Amino acid sequence: MVTGPNTATWSEAYNYTLTGNRSLTSDPTGLPTPTSEVPIGTGPAYTASNQISGWYYDCAGNVTGIPLNPGSTPACGTTPSGSLLRTAAYDAENRMTSVTPSSGARQVTRDCKSVRA
């Protein structure tokens, strides 16, 4: 637990998987609620290929979509659908070329320019 200069306190507790993935063991106190892409407690689980269950990946292992409520893990290359926190696209050399948040308000491109979607 940490106490700040204005006497506010907050705490976070972490756990690590055997492959080194970090997750919160419970909701942090005194901090904003984490988004659903932050592993908390026992979920989401990691797959045998060291990917988060329920997220969308291309066949090279790049995250292409993060669902609001992850379910079963889709096959690699499946187009992200449903309620998503964000989607991403990659070029042939596995470099991220764009990220689009669920709001669609902004898209970040590989040249670091932010454009309206």
Summarize the structure.
With 117 residues, the chain is mostly beta strands. It has no helices and ten strands.
Distinctive features:
mainly beta; six-stranded antiparallel beta sheet; 32% strand; single chain; 117 residues
Could you describe the 3D structure shown?
This protein is mostly beta strands. The protein has two domains: 1-43, no CATH class; 44-110, no CATH class. It contains no helices and ten strands. It has strands spanning 2-3, 9-10, 14-16, 22-24, 56-57, 63-67, 84-90, 96-101, 106-109, 114-116. It has a six-stranded antiparallel sheet, with no helix packed on it. The chain has a two-stranded antiparallel sheet with strand order 1-2. A hairpin with a 5-residue loop joins strand 1 and strand 2. The protein is globular. It starts with a strand and ends with a strand.
**How much is the average pLDDT?**
78
Task: Give the amount of beta strand, in percent.
Answer: 25-35%
How many DSSP-defined strands?
A: 10
Described by strand count, sense and barrel closure, the largest sheet is:
6 strands, antiparallel
Strand order of the largest sheet: 5-6-7-8-9-10
Q: Class by helix and strand content?
A: mainly beta
Shape: globular
N-to-C span: 41 Å
Number of helical segments with 4 or more residues: 0
Poorly predicted sequence stretches spanning 5 or more consecutive residues = none
Proportion in helices:
under 10%
Number of structural domains: 2
Order of helices and strands: EEEEEEEEEE
Radius of gyration: 17 Å
